[in-house]
Amino acid sequence: MALSSPGAGTAGATPDASERPAKSGPGRGLLPLLLVGNTAMYSLYIGVAGILLALQVEHIDPAHKVANFGLIAGVSAIFATIFNPVAGALSDRSGRRNPWILGGGLAALPAMFLLGFADTILLITIAWCLGQAVMNVYQAAITSVVPDRVPVTARGKASAAVGLGLPFGSTLGALLGAAFSENYRTGYLVFGAIVAGAAVLFTACAREERLPARAPLPLRAQLAAFASALGNHDFRWAFIGRALLVLGYFAVSGYQLYILQDHTVLPEGMKPEAAVAVMMPLTSVAMVVSTVLGGWLSDRFDRRKLFVGASALLSALALGIPAVSTSWTAMLVFSAVNGLAFGCYMAVDTALVTMVLPKAEDAARDMGVLNIANAGPQIIAPFIASVIVSVSGGYTALFVVAAVLAVAGALAVKPIRGVR
User: What angle separates helix 30-44 from helix 121-143, to the nearest 10 degrees?
Assistant: First the structure.
């Protein structure tokens, strides 16, 4: 999974997104289709990576599940990070998105079939890397639909449709993952079929016009663009703050099932996968509420740094709850508070970043640079988390380290001068 900011361009995009065709509004039914397409994508990411894959790894080698899961998650995240911009650049050059959405979505089904029959850690790693590759072909193309087909005046509604895919997909993924926890092979096929069905529905109903092909930036130019963007004082601190918070968030969320197995005292008779199915909807509802409320309040008071810093500190507070208590109640409170914090942070911080972009004409490129702050920490988070848990012998230290990272993320917005 490569978490991305709404509206961020692909790696191959050189023009500003505003230069794309501007119609009077998005095509009929496009916003519901974007919601369905993103919900399907996130349901697979959460249900597979968060539940079924963790159970499969534990079934093969229970004694080394933390280290093995960290290795698989980290290596597959590298594949996700590589294939997302590569697929975006290829779809840029073709001038089409639908064929890539359809191809990636349909390929998810055989990839999930192979994953279900992998019976060693090596084969699971290979199969999940393949799954990440095809899913990021799908993700890169569907993410580019908003700047391609939606005029600037309607981008807010379109971004909301894309953003709601995360909480809706997380809830669906958690519920289905729990339902198929005893038969993960069937569960994998169900998730693959959901993505394939969403891809067919989207491409059948959302027609597109071929856009002028665009050549991707050479690697040297991309590296120069990265260095140029980070040379800006305010953008650099926004980048650092985002990277720190995302690192802490994914270090914990990636091991959610194992935390419920080995750290939390669950009510008698409740299985860890059933607990995930309770926690994820709670987090999703909190995230939706705080995303809408945080964005509205930050607009009303014109205070972005205040809301970004406060939500990062709230995340640190949430992470401290399961560090001091192993009770099920503590985990429920953590889920709700962390959902409130992360939803508000992502909504307001994305707005803040758009206000500190170095150059308006390079907005799409620089938002792509920001996505490195999303994707990079997701690569190293599993490795860091597995080391912390292995060395400390438990998950308390992991929560503490994640809380410290969240506090550092809050402090990182303080030096920003161009935004209140």
Answer: 170
